[in-house]
Amino acid sequence: MVTVSKRNRWIAADWFADFFERNRNGMFLCVIATFAWGLVTHAYIFLHSSFSHDSLNEFNAAVFGNAWRIQLGRIFVPAYRLLVREAITLPWLIGVLSLLYISAAVFLTVKLFGIRPRLLTALIAGVYTANITVTATAATYIHDLDCNMLALALAVLAVYLWKRFDKGFLYGMLPLCVSMGLYQSYLSVAITLVILYLVLQLLDGHPFAEVFGKGLKSLGMIVGAGVLYYLAIQLVCRITGLSLVSGTYNSMDSILSRPVPEILYTVVTGYIQVGYKLCTAVSAYPGGLVLAVHIVMVGISGAVVLFRIVQREIGVPEKLLALLLLALVPLGMNVTYILTGGMSHDLMQFAFWLAYLFVLLIAWWAVDRKLLRKPVLQYGQRCAAVGLVFVVLWGNVQTANAAYLKKDLEQQASLSLLTRIVYRMEDCPGYVTGQTPVVFVGMPDAALENQVAGFERLYEMVGNEIGYALGVAGQSYYQAYFDNVLQNPAVMADEGTWFRFRKDDRVAAMPCYPAEGSVGMLDGVMIVKLGERFR
Fold it and tell me: Is residue 1 over pLDDT 50?
């Protein structure tokens, strides 16, 4: 006798088999396009061990990283690492996994918006792959790259389920919950995609009640995912004995301690930040060209949307709702900024780049609906959109490769510097490798000067602000560098000793490296004074 559970499993298996068969070509195209963009843009960092900043400190997440992720609310990261690619940072494997997850996100986006043209699919793959968020993550935080891209794919999956099934808002709660448990910032991707989908539905002439009801279901999905996420946090914290961090820029309680006027101010500045970031994003092209490209994109897409809204085929309620949703797009893109009380950096801003997705969707939509009567206008605006987006993407490709070259050169320079310092340490009377505690004071002046010609704008990217592998002058970062890069048994002093010597008058009187006397013993501790300034 066949049980109900077995029958349901057979039905599910048949559904997935049929889904794969029907979408095999589309999946293949998304994978090929994503890997093409991904390898041209990011292969450099996937094939180099240019660890720096946090990727140095979290080289082995079992030593430092997994517990911290739980305390940040990224509660599913340790389980993911255990199941998929262990605790060690493996650049090539992380890169391949990341591109697979981006491929899945691209495919689900294609299904969400019913996209058929191959060129459009390839450009969307570029938008998702060749952007500053992926570049900044890969350059300095590669240990998080695959987790973050899986969070992206799950956020898009949640929106696809919401759109695809009558009860999809219920089905989407779980993947959205897991997405937030990998990296909360990708909630903004789900919100932005929902808004863009609803806007296109209204422009297509769908009635107010239908779109409004669909929007309410999306809110239900987001709230439900938030509840599941909260319960999961409580469970994981109880099991591990850890608690969430509080009072830092990336803690989850930032908004709770802020008064309403400050929250409203954050909303306003959040709007401004989206436009400013898009128009001034780090690029290989001159800032004036980047600004002009975005002004033209906004002008063309805005004109097409407004031309459609003023037409009589769309009712007044639908017009007002469409305008309201368009006004909410920047808010959805930058919801992380608001939830953190006014803090957002490149890693948190993937949703910003969905602006280019909207530009492309509007360009193809206008042609498909024959919105503009003259063919020269229809195809002209689409060609313009393609060209402008490609300029942005190709600038991002160059920027990524330059950023990775910068990291590689900095790693080599840092290796040279610290190797020479080790020789000086070992020549000091009283120093015993592996026994004498070591303290590094200050940052190398050259590293803080942003001195390499041609890399000037790269220093604006999060994690790329200085030209030194140890971008955070903390005890654990130096210990990780000596353990994993130099593979030297030197022992860093404890944090208390580390900070005590930073304020010691005797250390203040020491010259900076490489001057004589910059490396020496004080109170049984090896002191290395790199510079006067800290970061």
Answer: no
